[in-house]
């Protein structure tokens, strides 16, 4: 196990009706709040009204910026930064899923910078601080309510989707009510579940030895999501199952699973290009990429994939044919994604392979990606090409 430093300062308030505490929590950080959200979903189900009531009940001055897309764009981020600067806003409240939270994080760091916020994502300028940020989580998926990361798309600059990590990007608090996820469409629920699994897998597939504790934590979380996700797909208002999935999403990406080990993140980098070029839901890009990434890299460490097959999927270990056991685990992963109604190939997603070279070039623009195996441009091309067909 490698040396590590782990900090997760976010306060989590979990359970039924906790969104009513939004005003009380926000007031700890100032009197002017930017209410940041996506489309009209929070207005249709009454959440918007409850949040505004909670904020105004604490005599807070509320400013609004809606319109966040599934892949948050730098244009809206810039608009939010201008609003925060001009109105001297103290704190941001992001109501939504990962896209809204990531957009809010980018606004929060841009608030204190005189240049263009995209400079942070191109590594031109280091991040130093972020505005106070609170979250009302409505979509368990990205774990952005707990993570030190934000991902933003620049559609004005060659379809670039870039991630940025810094400890100041962790929200100050997150209000998490599983009931708010009851009305999520099945596809969004499934894609969110795969996103959760992917965050665990990016840490689980490591070449680092002697990480038994975090291995077992990863396996427990994966098994929980694999068990509960079909339940919430069939019974959307099963509170117990929704609660398990929601908290799993937070635990998957608050950093605790990655301590002492080298994380991978190659699949995410490959998936980001699909989102950037085809505006795909993040979880759906991962349901395509992950099994094909597995098929491409598993021979680098067959024992790790055998462990995954046996300890996560319950596959009997064929000690005389370990490679067959490993392959069966990969196949189970692909079958699970398909059972959720998600694509596992470009064909399933209705996209062609015309942009493969361009995506691979963008993916590796700043060097190789991943750590389980370092992927260069040609490796990325081969994984994309394998992803064309089932």
Automatic annotation (TrEMBL):
Entry keyword Oxidoreductase: yes
Do you know which PROSITE patterns this protein is assigned to? ADH_IRON_2
Q: Which UniProt keywords apply?
A: Oxidoreductase
| Keyword check for Transmembrane helix | no
Q: Where is the Alcohol dehydrogenase iron-type/glycerol dehydrogenase GldA domain?
A: 9-178
One matching Pfam family is: ADH_Fe_C
Which superkingdom does the taxonomy of this entry point to?
Bacteria
Q: Which InterPro entries match?
A: ADH_Fe/GldA, ADH_Fe_C, ADH_Fe_CS, BDH-like
Give the Fe-containing alcohol dehydrogenase-like C-terminal domain ranges: 189-387
Q: What is this protein called?
A: Iron-containing alcohol dehydrogenase
Which organism is the protein's source? Answer: Dorea ammoniilytica
């Amino acid at each position: 196990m490698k040396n590590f430093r782990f900090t997760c300062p976010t306060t989590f308030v979990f359970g039924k009706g906790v969104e009513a505490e939004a005003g009380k929590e926000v007031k700890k950080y100032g009197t002017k709040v930017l209410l940041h959200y996506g489309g009209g979903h929070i207005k249709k189900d009454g959440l918007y009204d409850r949040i505004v009531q909670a904020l105004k009940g604490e005599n807070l001055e509320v400013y609004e910026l809606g319109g966040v897309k599934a892949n948050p764009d730098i244009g809206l981020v810039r608009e939010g930064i201008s609003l925060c600067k001009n109105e001297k806003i103290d704190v941001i409240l992001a109501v939504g899923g990962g896209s809204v939270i990531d957009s809010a994080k980018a606004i929060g760091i841009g608030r204190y910078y005189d240049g263009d916020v995209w400079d942070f994502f191109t590594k031109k300028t280091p991040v130093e601080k972020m505005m106070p940020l609170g979250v009302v989580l409505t979509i368990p998926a990205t774990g952005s309510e707990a993570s030190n990361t934000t991902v933003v798309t620049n559609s004005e600059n060659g379809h670039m989707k870039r991630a940025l990590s810094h400890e100041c990007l962790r929200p100050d608090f997150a209000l998490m009510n599983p009931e708010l996820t009851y009305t999520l469409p099945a596809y969004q629920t499934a894609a969110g579940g795969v996103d959760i699994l992917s965050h665990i897998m990016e840490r689980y597939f490591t070449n680092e030895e002697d990480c038994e504790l975090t291995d077992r934590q990863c396996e427990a979380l994966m098994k929980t999501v694999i068990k509960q996700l079909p339940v919430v797909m069939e019974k959307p208002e099963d509170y117990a199952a929704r609660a398990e999935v929601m908290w799993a999403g937070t635990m998957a990406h608050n950093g605790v699973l990655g301590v002492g080990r080298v994380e991978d993140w190659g699949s995410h980098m490959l998936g980001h290009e699909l989102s950037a070029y085809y505006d795909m839901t993040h979880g759906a890009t991962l349901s395509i990429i992950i099994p094909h990434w597995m098929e491409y890299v598993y021979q680098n460490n067959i024992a790790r994939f055998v462990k995954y097959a046996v300890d996560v999927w319950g596959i009997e270990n064929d000690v005389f044919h370990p490679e067959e056991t490993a392959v069966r685990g990969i196949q189970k992963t692909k079958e699970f994604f398909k059972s959720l109604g998600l694509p596992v190939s470009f064909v399933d997603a209705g996209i062609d392979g015309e942009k493969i070279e361009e995506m691979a070039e963008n993916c590796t623009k700043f060097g190789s990606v991943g750590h389980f195996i370092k992927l260069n441009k040609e490796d990325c091309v081969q994984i994309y090409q394998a992803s064309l067909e089932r």
